[in-house]
Design goal:
single chain, about 150 residues, mainly alpha, 7 helices
Length: about 150
């Protein structure tokens, strides 16, 4: 959980790198035709567009993806992803212990099996282990599995 929060914060701060942006764009451009490989699916996209009054994605997305800039995407990432506003749900066989660890900010060292880390990785791991998630006691609750869907 702590590492996921660190990674999300770093992603929001830096956004996509140029090669990540281009790789993602190329993936989406290549994937789009696979969304409608037969006439029935193409017809469904067309009917959805007509029914909702929106453009047909099969027609507009290729051009929109080509026109999209990395700066636009990174600005949208910063505008829409807010790590501080996350709502976290965790499933655990030791829910009370997990809650205590999170609320009290107990360090959670990363344990590797048969792996030697670099000094840089060990330092990052130590920073992540000592990180506080920032959940107050009144915000954290344990819900028994029996009552989760009632």
């Amino acid at each position: 959980l702590k590492l996921a929060l660190v990674e999300l914060e770093e992603f929001v701060a830096t956004g996509l790198l140029p090669e990540e942006f281009e790789d993602t764009r190329q993936y989406l451009l290549g994937r789009l035709p696979l969304s409608a490989t037969d006439s029935g699916r193409r017809l469904a996209y067309t009917l959805d567009a007509v029914a909702t009054g929106t453009p047909n994605p099969l027609e507009v997305l290729p051009g929109a993806l080509r026109a999209l800039t990395r700066e636009q995407v990174n600005e949208a990432i910063g505008r829409h992803l807010r790590p501080a506003d996350l709502r976290i749900v965790a499933v655990s066989g030791e829910a009370e212990a997990l809650r205590t660890t999170i609320v009290e900010g107990i360090p959670t060292p990363i344990v590797y099996v048969d792996v030697q880390t670099t000094p840089e990785q060990a330092a990052r791991d130590a920073d992540v282990a000592d990180r506080r998630v920032g959940v107050a006691a009144e915000q954290a609750r344990v819900v028994p599995v029996e009552g989760i869907f009632r």
